[in-house]
Amino acid sequence: xxxxxxxxxxxxxxxxxxxxxxxxxxxxxxxxxxxxxxxxxxxxxxxxxxxxxxxxxxxxxxxxxxxxxxxxxxxxxxxxxxxxxxxxxxxxxxxxxxxxxxxxxxxxxxxxxxxxxxxxxxxxxxxxxxxxxxxxxxxxxxxxxxxxxxxxxxxxxxxxxxxxxxxxxxxxxxxxxxxxxxxxxxxxxxxxxxxxxxxxxxxxxxxxxxxxxxxxxxxxxxxxxxxxxxxxxxxxxxxxxxxxxxxxxxxxxxxxxxxxxxxxxxxxxxxxxxxxxxxxxxxxxxxxxxxxxxxxxxxxxxxxxxxxxxxxxxxxxxxxxxxxxxxxxxxxxxxxxxxxxxxxxxxxxxxxxxxxxxxxxxxxxxxxxxxxxxxxxxxxxxxxxxxxxxxxxxxxxxxxxxxxxxxxxxx
Amino acid sequence: xxxxxxxxxxxxxxxxxxxxxxxxxxxxxxxxxxxxxxxxxxxxxxxxxxxxxxxxxxxxxxxxxxxxxxxxxxxxxxxxxxxxxxxxxxxxxxxxxxxxxxxxxxxxxxxxxxxxxxxxxxxxxxxxxxxxxxxxxxxxxxxxxxxxxxxxxxxxxxxxxxxxxxxxxxxxxxxxxxxxxxxxxxxxxxxxxxxxxxxxxxxxxxxxxxxxxxxxxxxxxxxxxxxxxxxxxxxxxxxxxxxxxxxxxxxxxxxxxxxxxxxxxxxxxxxxxxxxxxxxxxxxxxxxxxxxxxxxxxxxxxxxxxxxxxxxxxxxxxxxxxxxxxxxxxxxxxxxxxxxxxxxxxxxxxxxxxxxxxxxxxxxxxxxxxxxxxxxxxxxxxxxxxxxxxxxxxxxxxxxxxxxxxxxxxx
Lengths: 411, 411
Description:
The structure is a homodimer. The first copy, chain A, contains 13 helices and 20 strands. Chain A is α/β, with parallel strands linked by helices. Chain A folds into 2 domains: 172 residues, Acetylglutamate kinase-like (Carbamate kinase), CATH 3.40.1160.10; 167 residues, VC0802-like (2-Layer Sandwich). An 8-stranded mixed sheet of chain A has the order 3-6-2-1-9-11-12-10, with helices on both faces. A 4-stranded antiparallel sheet of chain A has the order 13-18-20-19. In chain A, strand 7 and strand 8 form a beta hairpin. The longest helix of chain A is centred in the N-terminal third of the chain and has 25 residues. Chain A is globular.
């Protein structure tokens, strides 16, 4: 008899029929003898409706009140879901964030969970009741409602699974798992059966579509086995788990790309101490997150620096850099919006040195110029011209034979 | 500087524009130096939408979950309202039933308020903040959400006014006050400026359209002056207050009618002790509320009994009475659905004996037969044939000169 936390997103509970289908699915697991906790999002479309209403009241809606508004969405789904379960003959109880209770800090609209009291849920589970928890929401020490931000229901589910020491946490979504790359670009993309927490974190741009990245960090910290799967089929999805021996044979787990970045290059800056600080302090103070930074030293104590920022922050970042450029005596400032970051991710890289080389060779063979390179223990990222994105992704997917679930180990 | 509780119903907060208008109205009062507490209902239409969703899940929705569902409606309006106030430059905070907190018993969907903690509201008022409270909802000792049933937001407003010792409680609605009779029947109906709690309670059938009757009882108990007025105009409405000397001059405050009753007559019952008990015990046990009961003793120790029940309970009541009829040896049982109860209400009646006589004379003059009569200290009710309803109401309104706000005292 396992304790299972199951999370269903907004598209899975978009209308009464879908809610009933999901309820039946949960009840089947309960009938098999499992103790079931269900975490639900708001019905698809509700959050947009609320945001639309809120912005009619206030251009930038008050964050505390936004949370009061948004959290009402999950309140609706958990109540309807509990009714459906009761209608089908089992017992269920809905619990809101403050009823559980899920304590958070008071950063409204993107609060962080501080503590979960699992007592009430356990009591209900002991009585054989299916516990239906409103995802995405918590409560501050002062009793104010908070929400956890984008993907918050995933976080609720994993955090509950950790607090309850659940045997597994299943995240039901509208795709059937994590793929080796974007199937829209590469028809040979393959669903990954098992992947480590670290790989999943690095595959953020793939993972974001199926599993909120914060919840992966939480799952890693508390060793919660997470199963990402489709709410519309019975097929197994992708298990996100701790690294084990069987994973060594996988060198590369996936190829990912990110088109939401831009590069800024500052050329021929005198290479003196404090230059980087002068450049990046005002950017950081403006709340702009810099991803990659590359510095090449030229002859004559001059240096070139290139870094990436989110495309949405590009204009602001360029303004700041142009202001600083004179102060640090840079010769020129250039930027580009037409770039993509392509990455290969895999825990097997740690023990095999040829991976980056293969990557460079593949891109060279396709005539794709590499603008920037950055590496981590289990990832190699290259910035390339945006127009080559699909070509690069397909070539890398083929080169590492990701369509096979047992890749050959290179010589 | 007064402490004012203002309640706005669903039609007053039906969309963002209306919410903003109401917010401005409240802020105007706040700018005059008043401490403002606002109680809001769900946006018009939301409750129906929720009921529709719920009945798709369960034919008779689970009451606990129904309350979770319904209470989300007020949560939306209070958040939007607080945003509107902030957008217009004042401070506001929304509070839900469990945040205030409004403690109730655990009779879901029609809970009764047991206690209100006014501390948090007072703190916010002391800071000059407009406090926006979700109407209609409370919380049990176990932390479950409850709702107060039909008209519950009026009850929330009056209960808050009592707990806060507010100077006044204003109930904003879509009509501009309480009228001497139904303006749809009698074009000379006049808006009443001041009326006592007791009269308002007796005028239930008029009052129900503008003010929930439970809230009037609460207002009476805690001596809360209630002002019922239109949310669409600035015109003064009707004050519901304690009786004072100036009211003596008003003999009759209003004429009301109720078409939702039916009569049942049991003829020629032997007049022995216990007959009434045998008849009314099973009716009461079936949850049927009997309003008027009339008993006439005939010659020969036989008696006739007539009583009224709600029309919706008529069939059930007839079945019960027919079963009992044999036991109590009644000769016949008859019933009628085609009746109306017409009443005149006024505290001035206490000191003037001619009122009932005038009523009887007026009806006689119009050729209207009186089927039953019942009196209380401040009310006289007659059951008449339904077809005479409008005629009777207009004739009585004219006879007592209710279109004048200073009626002549009869000789």
